[in-house]
Design a protein that fits this description.
The complex is a heterodimer of chains A (725) and B (153). Chain A has 725 residues and is α+β, with helices and mostly antiparallel strands. Chain A has 18 helices and 30 strands. Classes of the chains: A alpha+beta (725), B alpha+beta (153).
């Protein structure tokens, strides 16, 4: 009896194992299907019991792909959002590359939905057609009479759950071009009632982030890093650390960038690190202060630029401005900024029985650490596995081209006998002082206006610390010496500005710098949109009317930008601020999306400004998950406003002055009283939402303050005499 | 030293040095990872737990001071206020990255337990110490008001 039962069980599970349907794409991009994932790049898996799993190639840091990519599969396949689950794809750039990144698998540039939209819909649609074909064959029916709704195949007087046809469908070839639903047939895409897939686990404490991993027998490693960029560890004394219970040992990293301190648990590791004294060789270390960097940047925008960005003749532009009726001129300074994601950086490395290595990580660009670890461990790529876990925010920080923290973990692991997993943990102090900041940037702009209040010339000089030069992204993003991320949003801006010259100078870095939510647009939108207000004021024209005139008669791009500007102005009651309040507006295109924001404030610069309300209009093409789009606008606005109010990283003799949240004070709940988001209905292809909410928020606030207060050109605003309520 | 902790209705015998933050005993020893490490200096609220029903920052609570108290973590919430708060959080899809949300919820439950009908000003004041880098604040505020309504119903 026992034998029979177990025999039956074996047969059942063997059949079940065979009856799995994977649908995805081959490395050449063609649709493919089968009963094993090996020969294709599955975007969806359907188990024998009908369980549908979307295989999400983008990591989830809160921006919503776990919901968004799952929605695409569910929509085309014909299952409800409750009946589909998701898991993160393994690291394999040949299968899961970001179509916007070439041969890299990764998330960034607000591309997750844009580059997945057709792939995941096609995979869902192919699975639908295969299941329907299998049912049609079994029922002797015509495929055109069958459909799938809520996981049930119906038609020809019959109905059955998709589970019944998984085995048969798994034997079929994928259709080359499955029919995608017409937008009029959408039930989930564009439906504001679709809920996030990750709300419940993130509300009851069960969601597992990389920081929550606890492998059996693991050690925790923390790194004592040089207080100044470029310092090298020459040795250490751990006598006092030996008094810390749980301390294991310390070792200089092979690249001498720091000393790894190993302990049995996180608290012991932190305590032991405090007790280790490192002998630093600072002979080649950075010793500049941020005041000096600021001087260099300001000098650079007051000198001839190193690079001519847009090919215009600066002398011709100067002549147009010099001959103008009025000239408006401003110089701007933007400080270094930390990303400070809520979950400090962490990852875990363990050795596998097959001689390979597994990295457990909230991996934003898995291909980066994948290649770095293959190099460090001298293993072929297929021997390195990456388990992508939830990430507690990023804002760009988990996407270093150097794979900085994953490399640290690998180097710390290399120094062990590899018998125990090593979990690398950063403290908040490590995070705030650890570099990879939004670069410090200066702009100087001169604008000429004629007697009619029209722009005659626009001279725009930018000095920045290049994010891209020296990284593997250089061939893609640096052209003729110009790092596109230093200038994006100026030469490619949508205003039809006469006589514009754009110049750029690179200034040396005193810390590592990195993309930070919306990258170059963090400063270019601020400068363009505050200068628009300055020019409008000098011209005696309304800021909205002034902007619309510069967009009139342009192409579709200009029309879409004007569209959000008008919608935000309308919904934000532009020009009709209640008594005691001021309004500012800004509009900007970034990452393919058009966003306008009206910021309404009360109070004043001396007694305290309070952000009462932000009204946002966004055109991101088709909004797949409208509520996620709204959430990203709300978050992007908060991120922009919080930093511009009071955040900066400064250096004294090369050492970072800030340590933790008390001196890098985050946005708090009372800082913004209300945010209202309006989405422009659109049938255009989806574009980004993770970043585009951020750029207009800071200049809109600055424009509101400038109505009856100073024009802030030196950030953060608290450094320019602005107090906040 | 050996300690006896009353956590989520159960007694746990743990071994920890005096001065060890409660946070690390909860996370690393008891392996309850819903309580998060965010800053270590009581400036972000991600590590908020309840001690005898009162929200405290577990990163700045020494283990010896927690002995004898009823400790509740996100995993052990079950009061009427907690059920309302968690339901409202899901209903309004408050979370983004979610890393701070255990702490937000522990604070929100603390607020509604002592003040079931808070004003917006009282919410902002009470929740001021809980940072959310994703800036989900607007939904946090709405969800607390929604939970307050749910508790009344």
């Amino acid at each position: 009896m026992t034998l029979n039962t177990s025999r039956r069980g074996f047969l059942k599970s063997a059949a079940a194992a065979a009856a799995v349907l994977y649908v995805g794409a081959r490395p050449d991009g063609a649709l493919a299907a089968g009963s094993a994932p090996a020969q294709l790049n599955p975007f969806v898996r359907i188990d024998a019991d009908g369980t549908v799993t979307a295989i999400v190639k983008h990591f989830e840091k809160g921006q919503g792909p776990a919901t968004g990519l799952t929605t695409l599969i569910a929509e085309e396949l014909g299952v409800s959002m409750e009946d589909i689950q998701y898991e993160f794809a393994p690291s394999d750039p040949s299968r899961y590359a970001n179509l916007a990144f070439g041969q890299f698998q990764g998330t960034g540039g607000s591309t997750a939905m844009a580059n997945s939209f057709m792939q995941y819909r096609q995979a869902g649609a192919a699975a639908r057609e295969m299941l329907i074909k299998a049912a049609a064959e079994a029922w002797g029916a015509d495929v055109s009479t069958l459909s799938i709704e809520d996981g049930i195949i119906k038609g020809a007087g019959q109905q059955a759950p998709i589970a019944d046809f998984v085995g048969a469908a798994a034997q079929m070839e994928a259709p080359a071009e499955p029919r995608l639903k017409d937008p009029s047939e959408f039930r989930l895409i564009g439906n504001a009632k679709v809920k996030r897939k990750d709300s419940l686990p993130k509300t009851n404490g069960t969601a597992k982030y990389a920081m929550d991993l606890h492998l059996p027998n693991q050690m925790v490693a923390v790194i004592a890093r040089s207080p100044r960029m470029g310092g090298l560890a020459a040795g250490f004394d751990d006598t006092d650390a030996k008094e810390v219970k749980g301390y294991i040992r310390a070792a200089v990293l092979p690249n001498k960038a720091g000393v790894a301190v190993y302990a049995e648990n996180t608290w012991a590791a932190f305590q032991a690190r405090e007790a280790v004294t490192v002998d630093w060789d600072l002979s080649n270390a950075e010793n500049r202060s941020s005041d000096q960097i600021r001087e260099q940047l300001l000098n650079a925008v007051n000198s001839d630029p190193e690079y001519n960005v847009n090919g215009a003749d600066p002398a011709a532009t100067a002549a147009l401005i010099d001959g103008a009726e009025k000239v408006v001129e401003q110089t701007f300074y933007f400080p270094l900024l930390a990303h400070a994601p809520m979950e400090p950086l962490t990852c875990t490395i363990e050795a596998n029985e097959d001689g390979g290595i597994t990295l457990h990580d909230g991996a934003q660009i898995p291909t980066g650490p994948h290649m770095a670890l293959a190099e460090i461990f001298q293993l072929p790529m297929e021997k390195i596995r990456i388990n992508t876990m939830l990430a507690g925010g990023s804002f760009g920080r988990r996407a270093t081209p150097t794979a900085d923290y994953q490399v640290e973990a690998a180097l710390a692991f290399v120094l062990t006998d590899r018998s125990r997993p090593v979990k690398l943990v950063w403290s908040r102090e490590d995070d705030i002082t650890g570099g990879y900041y939004r670069p410090a940037v200066a702009h100087k702009v001169r604008v000429g206006l004629d007697a009619g209040g029209n722009i005659t010339g626009w001279d725009h000089r930018i000095a920045a610390q290049s994010i891209i030069k020296g990284t593997f992204f250089e061939p893609m993003l640096v052209h003729n010496g110009v790092d596109h991320t230093s200038v994006e949003g100026v030469p490619d801006g949508l205003y039809q500005i006469q006589g514009q010259f754009v110049g750029l100078s690179d200034v040396a870095k005193a810390t590592n710098v990195l993309w930070w939510r919306s990258v170059g647009h963090t400063h270019t939108a601020y400068v363009m949109e505050t200068m628009m207000d300055e020019a409008a004021r000098a011209a005696g024209r309304d800021p909205v009317e002034f902007r619309l005139a510069l967009l009139e008669g342009g192409g579709k791009d200009q029309e879409r930008l004007a569209g959000v500007l008008k919608l935000a102005a309308d919904k934000g009651n532009w020009g009709s601020a209640p008594e005691g309040r001021s309004q500012g507006i800004a509009v900007h295109k970034s990452f393919g999306s058009y966003v306008a924001e009206v910021v309404e404030i009360s109070g004043n610069a001396d007694d305290g400004v309070q952000v009462e309300k932000v009204t946002c209009a966004v055109d991101c093409g088709l909004a797949v998950n409208p509520d996620v789009v709204k959430a990203q606008m709300e978050g992007g606005i908060g991120y922009g406003i919080g930093h511009v109010m009071r955040n900066e990283i400064t250096l004294t003799d090369g050492v970072v002055d800030q340590f933790n949240f008390p001196d890098y004070e985050p946005l708090r709940i009372g800082d913004i009283n209300a945010i209202e988001v309006h989405i422009v209905p659109s049938a255009e292809a989806p574009s980004g939402v993770g970043e585009p909410g951020t750029p207009p928020s800071a200049p809109a606030l600055a424009n509101a303050i400038a109505v009856s207060g100073p024009r802030v050109t030196e950030l953060p605003m608290i450094n320019s005499g602005i107090s906040f309520a | 030293m050996a300690l006896s902790l009353k956590l989520n209705g159960q007694t746990h015998e743990v071994e920890a040095e005096p001065g060890t933050p409660l946070l690390w005993v909860i996370r690393d020893e008891l392996k309850l990872t819903g309580t998060k490490f965010g800053c270590g200096v009581a400036a972000c609220g991600a590590c908020t737990v309840h001690l005898d029903g009162e929200p405290v920052r577990s990163c700045q609570t020494y283990i010896e001071d927690a002995e004898g108290a009823e400790i509740t973590t996100i995993e052990g919430l079950n009061s009427k206020a907690a059920q309302a708060v968690q339901a409202a959080w899901v209903e309004l899809d408050v979370v983004q990255c979610g890393y701070c949300q255990s702490g937000q919820i522990m604070s929100a439950v603390g607020l509604l337990s002592e003040n079931p009908k808070p004003t917006v000003e009282e919410i902002d004041d009470y929740m001021n110490g809980n940072a959310c880098r994703c800036a989900t604040y607007q939904r946090i505020r709405s969800a607390i008001l929604r939970a307050s309504d749910m508790m009344e119903a």
